[in-house]
Design brief:
441 residues, two-stranded antiparallel ribbon
Length: 441
């Protein structure tokens, strides 16, 4: 008996047009994002289009937001890839509803509305709070180094800048001298009224390079001057210590020879990561234990985490209207000032005093009473049990962002835009989590 196959007629036209709503399952992430965006207050997105009399009809911001958020939630951030998905991917076509914005339009929309997209993060957290998902009983904070949109090979140390500046000045002087000689020679040949004053080939490139190096030097010197002021130093002090201690190795505002600045993204910094040193930003987040939702974010150019703890606590309160009962963090956030601030805010903190797998830290001295109290708390069986739960709260969320969304490098440059994009990424992972929890918008 011959085998019969299921009907397959690729050239057969449909008698009735199919509904795109039938192409995806009812519980698909695309529908959840669409319904959630419809529940948002999007007035800020529409303000820039009000009464400007443009002839060409712009794409509806609501559609553009859905496409952008679904792209981030599925690990697709490239505007070119998003434009291609709008033609090939069923979920994107359902969200766009037969709109096909070009990649430049997608890129411009994201760039122009980065602040408004960032503000949607707050709306999602508040929505989850109203739904009773965010309890803030226990919150864990963590930081993760994320690669900047810049190569560390585009960096230069202060010492190298000084050498290159000197070399370029000499080359430019030589080229200008050659130009003067050529001008004089051509004046003799063609007369003084004929052109012969063009810059030699390569002079403009050298001048541009010199200008970039000089600007980078100024940034390093300004950064060092700010650091010196924080130490109590003042211009004109020379190398003298303001507290009568040993003399400083450098004059006020003079960077170390090894201090670096990046030409592509000057606001990024060289940071140590698990894969070695790289040009990065230090992205921060706070995660609610009950729901695994991100309730606060932060961004810093500093590789150290301890200066970000109190800022995250303030952000949690401003977003949710409530402080967490317990706060968990690794040793990167330890400091006497942080411990005292948590006690004053009546937040039960559990912050390690030493890195795991390394030699135990020295006992805090008498001049650090808050650190002593933290050590006593963590040495108790209850304290160890509470702190042990930290790994299962914040670290998985960082893993979801980097491995499920594939977010390991920023698309934007500059700390403000990078911070906004981090909020957008955290918004995307929160939407995925709410969808998994079966939240009805």
């Amino acid at each position: 008996m011959p085998t019969t196959f299921r009907r397959y007629q690729p050239d057969q036209s449909l008698l009735l047009p199919p509904s795109p709503r039938d192409w995806l399952s009812e519980d698909h992430l695309a529908y959840f994002i669409s319904e959630t965006v419809d529940a948002f207050d999007l007035s800020a997105f529409y303000e820039r289009y009000e009464g400007d009399g443009r002839r060409n009809q712009p794409f509806d911001p609501r559609m553009m937001i859905k496409v952008t958020l679904y792209g981030y939630a599925t690990g697709i951030r490239s505007s070119r890839k998003l434009a291609k998905k709008l033609e090939e991917d069923v979920a994107f076509r359902v969200l766009a509803s037969e709109n096909f914005p070009a990649h430049r339009t997608i890129c411009d929309f994201r760039h122009d509305h980065l602040k408004e997209l960032r503000d949607l993060f707050v709306q999602v957290v508040q929505l989850a709070r109203e739904a009773g998902l965010v309890k803030l009983g226990t919150v864990a904070v963590d930081g993760s180094k994320v690669k900047a949109n810049a190569s560390r090979h585009k960096s230069m140390t202060y010492k190298q800048m000084q050498k290159q500046e000197k070399r370029l000045v000499q080359e430019i002087d030589r080229l200008l001298a050659e130009a003067d000689q050529i001008d004089a020679h051509e004046d003799e040949l063609y007369g003084p009224d004929q052109r012969g004053d063009e810059l030699p080939e390569g002079l403009r490139r050298r001048e541009d390079r010199l200008r970039a190096i000089q600007e980078a030097k100024k940034r390093l010197e300004a950064r060092q001057a700010e650091a010196d002021r924080n130490k109590g130093r003042r211009p004109g002090d020379g190398r003298k210590s303001p507290r009568g201690g040993p003399r400083f190795k450098r004059e006020f505002g003079l960077p170390e020879d090894k201090a670096q600045d990046n030409f592509t993204d000057p606001q990024s910094r060289i940071m140590k990561t698990k894969r070695g040193f790289g040009q990065c930003y230090n992205a921060q987040l706070a995660v609610d234990e009950e729901s695994y939702l991100i309730v606060a974010t932060g961004m810093t150019q500093n590789g150290a985490d301890n200066g970000e703890l109190l800022g995250l606590v303030e952000t949690i309160e401003s977003v949710t209207g409530q402080r967490p009962d317990k706060l968990l963090a690794d040793a990167g956030y330890k400091s006497e000032a942080n411990f005292r601030a948590l006690e004053e805010a009546q937040i039960d903190g559990y912050i390690s005093l030493g890195r795991e797998g390394k030699a135990p830290p020295q006992p805090p001295g008498r001049n650090r009473p808050a650190s002593q109290r933290m050590k006593q708390k963590l040495n108790s069986s209850e304290g160890r049990a509470v702190y042990r739960s930290r790994k299962g709260i914040a670290e998985p969320v960082v893993g979801w962002i980097k491995n499920i969304l594939g977010f390991r490098e920023f698309s934007f440059r500059g700390v403000e835009k990078v911070s906004a994009e981090w909020d957008l990424v955290c918004l995307a992972i929160n939407l995925r989590r709410l969808h998994r929890l079966g939240v009805v918008v």
